[in-house]
Fold this sequence. Notes:
CATH architecture of the largest domain: 3-Layer(bba) Sandwich
CATH class of the largest domain: Alpha Beta
Largest sheet: 7 strands, mixed
CATH topology of the largest domain: FAD/NAD(P)-binding domain
Strand content: 25-35%
Order of helices and strands: EHEHEEEEEEHEHEHEEEEEEHEH
Amino acid sequence: MDEFDVVVIGGGAAGLSAALVLSRARRTVLVVDSGAPRNAPASHMHGFLSRDGLPPADLLAAGRREVTGYGGRVVAGTVTDVTACGSDRFHLLLADGSRVSARRLLLATGLRDELPDIPGLADRWGRDVLHCPYCHGYEVRDQRLAVLGWIPGAVRYAQIVRQWSGDVAYVTAGEPLTAADRGQLVARNIEVVDDSVSRLLVDGDRLTGLLTDGGRTVPCDALFVPPRFRPHDALLGRLAAHTDQDGWVTTGPTGRTNIPGLWVAGNVTNPRAQVITAAGEGSAAAIDINADLVDDDVRQAVRETNHGLLA
Length: 311
């Protein structure tokens, strides 16, 4: 069984950032990456200082090169099982049957976006069906935009989308509006469509509008859909990590969980983390992990010294 100081599960921005810091700290590091990043459908990422507009795949490729350049290992695969062995060791089983162990474990497995069941919507996800106005709003500025109000809190989301265009329609999609919500939408010239969406209207591989259940056409060039976020947290469940009332793992400020030796970073714990935020969380977790390993190294050195003196 191969042994590492740290195994990082997830090779996105959070996981690779952590692996880079730990590899530079001369730790033995393994990154296990499933190769299915959440932002794969997006052609470009935005809001990452000095990397604005870079394709997400290019960022990950550069990150893998940097990690391996400092001696870290990155392998394609998935972890199917993990067991905590005391307070200083984890045993992991990979899908290919291989086994590894780690003194510390970082989960950066991300999340999945749960979307409404509307024909054609998933096919256009990350193209002209969008979820993050800060990631994509500038690229569709001053165009005809629609917002799907299918979950609670979508009215506030629509008001944020309004920052990028004066032509915004809000489709209630079965979610009731309070009088205050409706008044605020109208006050900012956001058209309210009291209906649900039947399907998307596409012409020449370009979104042109929405067809409602009532037969109405809502013209739009881009549709913003606030998704429901579902963390990839099966391994956290196996380790019995504490979660909050909404099911998200709870951590300290650097991603440390209640399980000794276990940290998390990125979207698996913070659904609103953008790429740059996730990278920062990975870095912060890595620094804390290394400090924890140093404490462990000191304790071990003291034990060995005392044993030698007594021998």
